[in-house]
Automatic annotation (TrEMBL):
Catalytic activity line of the entry: a UDP-3-O-[(3R)-3-hydroxyacyl]-alpha-D-glucosamine + a (3R)-hydroxyacyl-[ACP] = a UDP-2-N,3-O-bis[(3R)-3-hydroxyacyl]-alpha-D-glucosamine + holo-[ACP] + H(+)
UniProt cross-references to InterPro entries, sorted A to Z: Hexapep (IPR001451), Hexapep_transf_CS (IPR018357), LpxD (IPR007691), Trimer_LpxA-like_sf (IPR011004), UDP_GlcNAc_AcTrfase_non-rep (IPR020573)
EC number(s) given by UniProt: 2.3.1.191
Domain UDP-3-O-[3-hydroxymyristoyl] glucosamine N-acyltransferase non-repeat region: 23-88
General function of this protein: Catalyzes the N-acylation of UDP-3-O-acylglucosamine using 3-hydroxyacyl-ACP as the acyl donor. Is involved in the biosynthesis of lipid A, a phosphorylated glycolipid that anchors the lipopolysaccharide to the outer membrane of the cell.
Catalytic class of the enzyme: transferase
Organism, as annotated: Vibrio olivae
Record protein name field: UDP-3-O-acylglucosamine N-acyltransferase
Primary gene name: lpxD
GO MF annotations, alphabetized: UDP-3-O-[(3R)-3-hydroxyacyl]-glucosamine N-acyltransferase activity
Alphabetically ordered keywords of this record: Acyltransferase, Lipid A biosynthesis, Lipid biosynthesis, Lipid metabolism, Repeat, Transferase
Amino acid sequence: MATLTLAELATITGGTLHGDKNAEVSMVAPMDKAQKGHVTFLSNPKYAKHLEQCQATVVMVKEAQKEQFSGNVLVVADPYVAFARVAQALDTTPNPATGISPSAVIADDATLGTNVSVGANAVIESGAVLGDNVIIGAGCFIGKGAKLGNNTKLWANVSIYHQVIIGDDCLVQAGSVIGSDGFGYANERGEWIKIPQLGSVRIGNRVEIGASTTIDRGALDDTVIEDNVILDNQMQIAHNVHIGYGTAMAGGTIVAGSTTIGKYCIIGGASVINGHIEIADGVTITGMGMVMRSIEEKGVYSSGIPLQPNKEWRKTATRVHRIDEMNKRLKAIEKQLGQKT
């Protein structure tokens, strides 16, 4: 178990400590459950009510809240960011693999950097290139000519198809598939003719991809995920999609082919984004958003229907089906009133 002094916490977070610099913590905990040896934080003012009874060894707060806690206080610019950095420092998650497993199958002409680990039953095919400190979990498949940058980590059973390029410091969670065929077919008199997907997938640096997410290779050009993108679990990114720097997308989202998503976008869970459209930089789409056309201006967009009691929802649905009829009646009434005036 990792242990840090409060002086070390101050260095990690860039904060100012008010209290015992030699006190130690080994775990991050919620404010209302924290005990001695724990570090907690206040980022949402509604939880300030727990400060008085909090038993944590230290609380990370903004300057305005430092007098609200009688124990050790670490004043930081952003308590939530500080929490993230401290959690990283105290993280005890094991690596997906250590060393080269005897059961791993590695092609003779694959290139492995220094300090590479490959788990049991993993397969690394001809021409693949792995950078320094790469970790490949058990059961992974790295296709021909694929390239993984320094410090990139794959959890178990990840499939990286041929010619896929992944940058430095990336993390891919278990069961994800990168570089599978895009959904490309021509139809000749009712018969489907497969279009070979001749592009690849290019993923930048510091990208994280959740479990069981699929990113298809391009039909002609590549599918592109730029630096600092985070993708949640169970997502479908279709062929030739381009996702811009710093965008975050929550679980269950589906993006159809040849769509471009700008920089610093936030896409809520279970959203569906149509193909061949463009989304501007800085767009937020709330959960269950259905994006049918391009979005040209930064802002917050919503389309999901909030939950209602079933009886109210039935009434709403019935009225929606009658909108066209109601619109015709309204126009008729307006016409009659106009004639009378």
